[in-house]
Amino acid sequence: MNIYKLLQLNRKIKSHRIKFLGLYLLHKFNKRYLAVNLDPVMACNLRCKMCYFTDADYVKTLKGQFKEEELQRVAKTIFNRALKLQIGCGTEPTLYKKLPELVALGKRYNVPYISLTTNANLLTEEKIETLLKAGLNEFTISLHGVTKASYEGFMKKSSYEKFHNAFKAFAKLKAHYNFKVRINYTFNKDNFYELQEFFQHFDGKSFDILQVRPIQKIGNTEYNDFDLESLRTDYPKIIKQIRHNCKKNNVTLLASDIIPNKNISNDSSLIFDYTFCYVSPQKFWKEGFNWQTETFNQYSKKIGWSKTLFSNIFKSKTALKSRSNRLNYEVEFN
């Protein structure tokens, strides 16, 4: 299954009514439509300046990790409705010792696409291969700087050398395994221009997708300059150059042609709140869901989820403004 073609299809279908009709039918007939984002452990090995792990008060609230038997219950509750399983959403999943077993668990429930979001500093070639053998489809790698100085400056406690060693392993293992590597590059006005040098530092054969996304306020972070107006004039020209470089290297680019305006809604994201399912030791999908005793279908019926999806078919886009502030990425397929 190609997740990125689904993303492109979502953007091309302009009618939110068709989208919600599809979701309603998928839900009603017990089909897969959820993007399950699972944090197995509430911790991180780095302290990135643009991340809430530099907010000391917030970090104090992040506690716990799933026991193996709890993950078995999580899988039984939700994995058969997952179109995609994203391991790692707001924390670092490579700190979880049973990570390969979690990937294998997803495969046992036939989840079509399993991705791991990580800072890659704890990944070795051996660990990468173990995850691939377990059934992982994609590594999604967080990146906040192209050069060593910028990377280690923004991603405190990180190692530029360890990071690049992971990419050398990706390039080597791609000869033997079918998997994707996606880089998520979060930019601000201090690390944006170095994107022009991206392929001078990264081998295009070691990754498949580059996502370029603007900084967003996600807490009381150490880096707190969210003003991107000084980049607005240069941004389209540089993104055009990056698009050209990606095509030369057979890399898919996920990026907006202009810096998104926060005041303009993204119609492609209207269904996000209805497909996103966050799971952690502290939270499971919606408030009030007792996942250890209730099934997904039981709780969905209790809250009238089918009625909600069906009624959204007839609501206006204004009434369905997404609370998630998702960005509308233009997808280039090469």
UniProtKB/TrEMBL annotation:
The protein's required cofactors: [4Fe-4S] cluster
PROSITE patterns named among the record's database cross-references: RADICAL_SAM
MF annotations from Gene Ontology: catalytic activity; iron-sulfur cluster binding; metal ion binding
Domain Radical SAM core: 28-245
Keywords per UniProt: Iron, Iron-sulfur, Metal-binding, S-adenosyl-L-methionine
CDD domains xref list: Radical_SAM
InterPro entries: Aldolase_TIM (IPR013785), Radical_SAM_PqqE_MftC-like (IPR050377), rSAM (IPR007197), rSAM_sf (IPR058240)
Transmembrane intervals: none
Classification via Pfam families: Radical_SAM
PANTHER family tied to this protein: PQQA PEPTIDE CYCLASE, RADICAL SAM DOMAIN PROTEIN
Protein's UniProt name: Radical SAM protein
Gene source species: Mangrovimonas spongiae
Taxonomic lineage: Bacteria, Pseudomonadati, Bacteroidota, Flavobacteriia, Flavobacteriales
